């Protein structure tokens, strides 16, 4: 059984994975927003193509069917999500005129960190994939082996944002995909999965925190870092007890106007604003008022338009009854979504105890679609975090003993 596990290639993990939706590195941020708002994935891949890509109908396209080129000419150079856009718009100069900021190329959103996204072949071994992830790769871009026949290409209408090169589509694998795969063979690692995370020494004390009453704007840098680290920003009280979190996974389900809330609200109020019920009307009024006070008229107009599209009306005849009611979602929230494709996140943190077993924490993280679990003591004092990366280190060490 152990030999069988080690013999797996990445193609085995790609079964059933959807083809990547993609953007050209020269696309604008506004174009990226359109893709993100109509996608079931939080991220969209960004590609750099040195050749002239043509669709099946012969028209040039930054993403579509690309024929007659060298594979090395076209590479996935990164990924972007709504959080990248939100943090970008939080810059003072972009709040003044968000419409101008959104015309910039999507390349300005890409983190200047090499190796976050890597191309690998379907024949890449599971061990090699784990090593790449532990070295810092967040996503492994893998060609989907099934090739499209010429006849199928002629009759199939290509998605304008799905990358297909020489009849090949691409998918990507994440830490979660690998952890899920290992969980299916968890018995091979016995008794390690039953050990507590404290015993295994995988509780990290390197955590990002912000105090509940602090301005949420003070957490912008931490939010950007947590996106890269695939973790979150813990919101704590004055005694270090965990109250909630400002999570990239939650922010990714919002629209770009949340940047206005980040710049004007406290951390505690921001948690309430981005929670799954939708922003409360009184918080919306606070954001609008503070944008006006700071003469951020560009963002105020953008924000007001978004709230109006979401169903907000400042001329409500029953303000008291509306004050505690969440507003209808705007942007991505208003569209129907498959629960299996996307779980709506809240500001409530997922927690465990230092004595929790490794397998229990794995299941917690997977069931809530997060890459980490906060570790707290009985008194809710935050002591650390356990990530998928920490878990993979344990399994990688054990795999060496059965190789």
Automatic annotation (TrEMBL):
Record InterPro entries: AMPK_gamma/SDS23_families (IPR050511), CBS_dom (IPR000644), CBS_dom_sf (IPR046342)
Keywords of this entry: CBS domain, Repeat
Keyword Repeat assigned: yes
Pfam name, any one: CBS
CBS domain: residues covered: 343-401
GO cellular component: cytoplasm; nucleus
UniProt-listed SUPFAM superfamilies: CBS-domain pair
Keyword hit for NAD: no
PANTHER family assigned: AMP-ACTIVATED PROTEIN KINASE, GAMMA REGULATORY SUBUNIT, CBS DOMAIN-CONTAINING PROTEIN
Protein's name in the database: CBS domain-containing protein CBSX5
Gene name of the record: LOC107918060
């Amino acid at each position: 059984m152990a030999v069988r596990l080690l013999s797996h290639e990445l193609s085995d993990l790609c079964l059933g994975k959807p083809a990547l939706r993609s953007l050209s590195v020269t696309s604008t941020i506004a174009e990226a927003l359109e893709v993100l708002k109509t996608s079931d994935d939080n991220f969209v891949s960004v590609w750099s193509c040195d050749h002239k890509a043509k669709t099946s109908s012969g028209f040039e396209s930054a993403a579509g069917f690309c024929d007659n080129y060298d594979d090395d000419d076209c590479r996935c150079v990164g990924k972007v999500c709504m959080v990248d856009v939100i943090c970008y718009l939080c810059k003072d100069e972009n709040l003044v005129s968000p419409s101008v900021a959104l015309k910039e190329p999507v390349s300005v959103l890409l983190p200047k960190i090499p190796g976050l996204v890597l191309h690998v072949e379907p024949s890449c071994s599971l061990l090699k994939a784990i090593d790449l992830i532990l070295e810092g790769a967040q996503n492994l871009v893998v060609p989907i082996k099934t090739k499209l026949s010429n006849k199928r290409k002629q009759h199939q209408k290509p998605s304008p944002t799905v990358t297909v090169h020489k009849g090949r589509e691409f998918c990507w694998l994440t830490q979660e995909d690998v952890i899920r795969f290992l969980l299916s063979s968890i018995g091979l690692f016995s008794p390690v999965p039953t050990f507590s995370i404290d015993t295994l020494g995988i509780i990290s004390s390197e955590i990002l925190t912000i105090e509940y009453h602090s301005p949420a704007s003070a957490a912008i840098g931490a939010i950007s870092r947590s996106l890269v680290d695939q973790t979150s920003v813990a919101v704590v009280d004055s005694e270090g007890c965990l109250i909630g979190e400002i999570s990239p996974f939650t922010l990714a389900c919002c629209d770009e106007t949340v940047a206005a809330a980040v710049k004007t609200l406290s951390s505690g109020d921001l948690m309430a604003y981005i929670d799954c019920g939708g922003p409360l009307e009184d918080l919306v009024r606070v954001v609008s008022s503070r944008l006006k006070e700071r003469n951020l008229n560009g963002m105020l107009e953008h924000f007001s338009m978004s709230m109006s599209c979401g169903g907000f009306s400042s001329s409500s005849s029953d303000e008291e009854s509306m004050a505690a009611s969440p507003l209808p979602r705007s942007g991505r929230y208003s569209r129907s979504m498959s629960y299996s494709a996307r779980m709506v996140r809240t500001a409530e943190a997922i927690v465990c105890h230092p004595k929790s077993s490794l397998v229990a924490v794995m299941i917690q993280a997977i069931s809530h679609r997060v890459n980490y679990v906060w570790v707290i003591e009985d008194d809710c004092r935050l002591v650390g975090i356990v990530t998928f990366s920490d878990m993979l280190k344990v399994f990688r060490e054990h795999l060496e003993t059965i190789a």
